[in-house]
Amino acid sequence: MSNAPAILGLVALERRRGPLQAQLYQRLREDILAGRLAPGTRLPASRAIATDLGVARNTVVAALERLAHEGYVTARTGSGTRVAALPPEALSTVRAPVRLPAEGGRPPRLARRSARWLATRRPVSDPTRPAFQPGFPAVDEFPHDVWARLVQRHARRPGKGTLGYAHAVGLPALRAAIVRYLTTARGVTCRPEQVFVVAGAQAGLDLICRLLLDPGDAVWVEEPGYLGARGALVGAGAKLVPVPVDAEGLRVDVGAAKAPRARLAYTTPSHQFPLGATLSLSRRLALLEWAARAGAWIVEDDYDSEYRYGGRPIAAMQGLDAGGRVIYLGTFSKTMLPALRVGYLIVPEALIEPVTIAIRHTGHSVPVVVQAALADFVDEGHFATHVRRMRGLYAKRQAALIAAIARLGGTRLVAEATDAGLQLAARLVDGTDDRALSAALGTAGIVAPPLSAYHLGRPRVRGLLMGYAAVPEREIAAAVVTLGRVLERVR
Length: 491
Known about the structure:
With 491 residues, the chain is of the alpha/beta class. The protein has three domains: 15-95, Arc Repressor Mutant, subunit A; 116-128 and 142-384, 3-Layer(aba) Sandwich (Aspartate Aminotransferase, domain 2), CATH 3.40.640.10; 389-489, Aspartate Aminotransferase, domain 1. The chain is built from 16 helices and 13 strands. An eight-stranded mixed beta sheet has the order 3-10-9-8-7-4-5-6, with helices on both faces. A three-stranded antiparallel beta sheet has the order 11-12-13, covered by helices on one side. Strands 1-2 form a two-stranded antiparallel sheet.
């Protein structure tokens, strides 16, 4: 063992890359694990290292003390600081750093069902380009000051028992507030114990799919339909059975003929995504009767029912369910802020215990401070006030979009008013490739996904899904003028 100190090949530390102490610790640790500093090697004195690197001696001392504490070096009076003897297996795991496969190399091995899952691509929201993002609310119209005050109230004075793990399934105050709201606004029938607060509607879908489905189970999905639901179902290994929709919503008769013993049916009955139909009462009853007969579950995704412009919102199908087959899925992302990531499940009595256990395993929970503020936001009337304001605003913006499309003067793109929602389906009636049109619009700064992307099979409807909620009326007019120019180029 040589007593001569090692010559360290350290390069200069850079302040812009973070704390100097952490950089020095990391570089010495890497040299030890990679074998460049052999066991027993004596390191230079802290003062010498500090001089070489141009840093304070305290920085070096702190890095060496951390290495000693973690067992990478030993420090003895009269012997200096030496590299510790590490077990061979510790060195072998780091000498060959893990690298991503080079282009053309073998990809990492994933689960077999991942190929279908990863192939289910969803449009990524870009709030800097609101025209025409589907499902995106007017976040600039949200009462941010009120929300900040409520969050601050609970962050400063958290209630007893709210700082642990006790409320993973939902804060009691918020569960009760959701019940009071849904009972009057949506005709839902439930107890607070049936309400589970989750980190967004997608988390709720993922939880239900993993809990209720085995790989290969048949599931009805609307055709065309919501890509988020498709992703959750495919991730659970389900066999998707596309069921067409028409002016009355899901064709229950077709679903029963194609897969009479399906395990689950996913539907958006109040405002079909993406075409906008409302499931008729006769079909709601037929769907409930089929589920009871088949022992199947129904997931009712009520993603934007608050925004109905003609009369009261259609009552939820859950309120008609006497057999305990409907799982109701709601979200605050469309009514408040997408970044809030708060959704909820209303489950039948028989699923309370399984969902309670499952949600603690999956970690689909929402911070309690957010839940407490949201409970106050609902109970103090801020939520109802905001929804009423946005309902009027969005109705005007939908009318502005339809009028702007009509002013194009052509017959290739047709948009009709719908009774509800944050977006509408504008149909192409001349066979134009909607994917090519959507891509060209993206280049021009406009986001409008193609309707064909929401089909599992051969597209029956081509066009654009156009969100208007987040776009001021003057910007709607300008964006549609751009759309018209792009449409002329794409034939």
